[in-house]
């Protein structure tokens, strides 16, 4: 039958589940996840490389007016075209990537750090402080991001 537990309750015998090594469905799921992760990693590494090497591989100086014709379309000489002053857009994107990556990294570090500090304070102290921090975060999440940007600016 079964084993006798506390107070005479009969416990069921332990059930053993047969071990499955690998299924094709789980393999496809993991491969899909791995490919998506590798694609994301490739994009991030590309932009980090452009931030580091951008000024060195830029074909023209950033502020140099390279052609008197403005708003030139995409061509072999200007792969991204030119802007309203005749400056090469590819050079401007390559040099501007450095600042974009730096701002994104700073935003991620600040958000992670402040979230860590607020979360730890709420977890350690609890009570009123936890409730206050939780309600403040709920309020921030409930405001749409575009509306929040308008209020802040």
Largest sheet: 2 strands, antiparallel
Helix content: 55-70%
Write the H/E string, N to C.
EEHHHH
Distance between the termini: 73 Å
**What characteristic shape results from the CA principal axes?**
flat
What is the gyration radius calculated from CA atoms?
28 Å
In what range is the share of β-strand residues?
under 5%
Strand adjacency order, main sheet: 1-2
Structural class: mainly alpha
Name the average pLDDT: 84
Low-confidence stretches: none
Number of helices: 4
Strand runs, count: 2
Keywords:
153 residues; mainly alpha
Structural write-up:
This protein is an all-alpha fold. It is built from four helices and two strands; from the N terminus they run ββαααα. It has a two-stranded antiparallel ribbon with strand order 1-2. β1 and β2 (10-11) form a beta hairpin. α1 (24-57) packs across α2 (89-125) and α2 packs antiparallel against α3 (127-142). The chain is flat, with a radius of gyration of 28 Å. The chain starts with a strand and ends with a helix. 6% of the residues are buried. The mean pLDDT is 84.
Short synopsis of the structure:
The chain has four helices and two strands; from the N terminus they run ββαααα. With 153 residues, the protein is mainly alpha-helical.
Topology:
Elements: E1 3-4, E2 10-11, H1 24-57, H2 89-125, H3 127-142, H4 145-152
Antiparallel strand pairs: 1-2
């Amino acid at each position: 039958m079964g084993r006798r537990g506390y107070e005479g309750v009969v416990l069921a015998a332990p059930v053993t589940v047969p071990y499955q090594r690998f299924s094709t469905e789980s393999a496809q799921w993991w491969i899909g996840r791995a490919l998506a992760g590798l694609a994301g990693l490739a994009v991030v590494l590309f932009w980090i490389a452009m931030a580091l090497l951008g000024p060195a591989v830029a074909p023209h100086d950033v502020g140099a007016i390279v052609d008197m014709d403005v708003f030139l379309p995409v061509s072999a000489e200007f792969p991204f075209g030119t802007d309203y002053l005749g400056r090469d857009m590819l050079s401007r994107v390559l040099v501007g990537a450095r600042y974009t990556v730096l701002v994104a990294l700073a935003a991620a570090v600040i958000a992670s750090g402040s979230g860590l500090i607020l979360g730890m304070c709420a977890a350690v102290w609890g009570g009123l402080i936890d409730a206050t921090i939780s309600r403040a975060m709920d309020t921030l999440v409930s405001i749409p991001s575009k509306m929040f940007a308008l209020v802040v600016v």
